[in-house]
Write a structure and sequence with these properties.
Layout: E1 5-25, E2 30-50, E3 53-54, E4 61-73, E5 76-79, E6 82-86, E7 92-94, E8 105-107, E9 110-123, E10 134-145, E11 149-160, E12 167-178, H1 201-210, E13 213-225, E14 230-232, E15 236-253, E16 264-279, E17 286-296, H2 300-306, E18 313-320
Length: about 325
Amino acid sequence: GLYPVFDFALDVGDRDAALQIPYLDTAKDSLFVGSTSYQKMYVGGMASVALPLDFSSGGWDRRIEPSLALSLSNDELYDPFLPVKADADGGYSDDKSYQDRPQWTSHTTAYRTAAVLRGSFLRPAARSQMMASKGFGFEVGVTGSDFNWSEYGKVYAYLPGLHPWHGLKLSAAVRHYSMDLYSSWFADPCPPAPRGLAKNADVEAFLLMAAPLAGRISLDYAMPVLPMDFSIGNIFYFRNFEVVPFADITLLQPASGVNMTGNQLWSAGADIAVNIQRLVLISSNFSIGVRVAYSGGSAFPFLQEQIPGLKPLYVGAVFNTEL
């Protein structure tokens, strides 16, 4: 490809425009974000351009793709936060006695930008394999909104496993953001939480605020088991079961004023899934199953203090299209 690819989207009226306000509970020194309608029809749009460059040859897929994206909407964002205190009836009211009360700034147009460069140099997977047999890839980017910026990078490599059907994936990711500590609606482009905690929205939000610099190292070992090759005409084709043991370790650099019990988190577990290549009108290689993971680390007790009910054991559904 020597030609750019343009993508446009417009979203009008599927909801009311939102007013997003971060609140600081001064008694607990904890933050939550409230979102409420302000009786205007929502209007939002996105435009992006990418240049997919393909240098494949000799059985290797070699691709480079730079891209730019811009999103706009009429949502309103307020910065940096509103100090509140809990009321007896379970609600919250303005805490006018808070000493460090900031000056608010209204951002009437919410926007997000992204500049990303992706690349991959892979030997394609054989039909009997779950992932590329060898190769590597990367992604680096800068994302931002009205008052928040983040830089991130990801690298990964594929290696042969102990059996011709098996595969090993090593990956690493790091992200750093520059923003007001309390501007928590900023989307993290590279969530650092280990997979046993990554589905917990409270963990992700807290790590985004508490650790401006964070990275994760991951290992996946993919192996198909129990080949079945069972089909019902053109309606259903069940290929086999898949087991993917994994391990993640996350390293955190806490923000100034955040006193964690440690700076690392980890998870170990496995995805156990069934590989389906046809389901009624869906003809694609995907898998549906369950993820079981156990998490810990020196920063885990601190997360448990901040997030009541957080457990080290995670069991949940998983859906994969590729590794």
